[in-house]
Design brief:
Oligomer: single chain
Structural class: alpha+beta
Distance between the termini: 26 Å
CATH superfamily of the largest domain: Regulatory protein AraC
Helix content: 25-40%
Strand order of the largest sheet: 1-2-10-5-8-11
CATH architecture of the largest domain: Sandwich
Largest sheet: 6 strands, antiparallel
Shape: globular
Radius of gyration: 21 Å
Number of helices: 10
Length: 271
């Protein structure tokens, strides 16, 4: 993380966040399906194969258990500020029960999505902002109504968004090789990698050794350094700009590991 000050106001599962300065998370596993409206500033969402840049007026949908790295930045003299709605499993289950709906089965999940502008989204977030001026907690029945309204809007906009909300179970066992090749740059504890692939830590390490013939830590370090080398040589980027993106927590550790692997420091490539 880079120096920053965060102010957050919560009203039930509705949040307003203001970040002064720059903020960079090394990884993010979204625990709840979340709808975010950008009010000012900029958010860079670093995904395994692309970077999504969003600004004021944009609306983003984050499915639960998606992996990303997040940078929150000021822009045009304005701090990062956003409003978010969290969809807890309880709120989604309540909605399905209330309207006599059945959760979707099968794989209908969407990834992190930038939503198209829509009048219903405008109306929803314009109605939420005054709530943050309340001195007391938002009444439960009003908060519940707004969550239901948001779910109905997602259903109206794209049924795939609605279907994604119905996925609130634990991760099932998936192909470990495919997952690791896609997500190795995310710096997580090994038990988190295991959880997201549907395995206990012991089973994850055992299956990993069978797939890659080495330990997870050795393999992760090698892959991250190879990615860093590519970014430095082919993309002509600087070490200070990439070390977090490729999965290292600080620049000094990255430089030490890079020199140990390749025999020269990363700074030599950008000299």
């Amino acid at each position: 993380m880079i120096s920053h000050t965060i102010q957050a106001v919560s009203k039930a599962n509705i949040f307003l966040t203001c970040t002064e300065g720059k903020y960079h998370s090394n990884q993010l596993v979204v625990q709840k399906n979340t709808l975010i409206r950008m009010l000012s500033g900029e958010m860079r969402i670093i995904l395994p194969d692309s970077t999504l840049i969003v600004g004021a007026g944009d609306t983003i949908f984050f499915p639960r258990l998606e992996l990303a790295k997040i940078m929150k930045l000021p822009k045009d003299g304005q701090p990062y500020k956003s409003a978010a709605i969290y969809f807890t499993p309880e709120s989604v289950q309540h909605y399905f029960a209330k309207y006599h709906l059945k959760p979707e089965t099968g794989d209908h999940k969407l990834g992190i999505s930038l939503l198209n502008p829509h009048p219903l989204l405008e109306s929803l977030f314009n109605s939420l902002l005054p709530y943050f001026d309340l001195k007391n907690e938002l009444p439960e029945n009003i908060a519940e109504g707004k969550i239901d309204e948001a779910i109905s809007i997602l259903k109206e906009m794209d049924v795939r968004l609605f279907n994604t909300l119905s996925h609130f179970g634990e991760p099932g066992k998936i192909n470990l090789t495919e997952f690791m090749e896609k997500n190795y740059m995310f710096n997580m504890p090994m038990d988190q990698f295991g959880y997201l692939t549907g395995r206990s830590l012991t089973t994850f390490k055992r299956d990993f050794k069978k797939a890659f013939y080495t330990t997870p830590q050795k393999w992760l370090t090698q892959k991250r350094l190879e990615l860093a080398h590519y970014q430095l040589t082919e993309k002509k980027r600087k070490a200070a700009d990439i070390y977090m993106e490729v999965g290292f927590e600080n620049l000094s550790h990255f430089s030490y590991a890079f020199k140990k692997q390749f025999g020269y420091s990363p700074s030599m490539l950008s000299a």
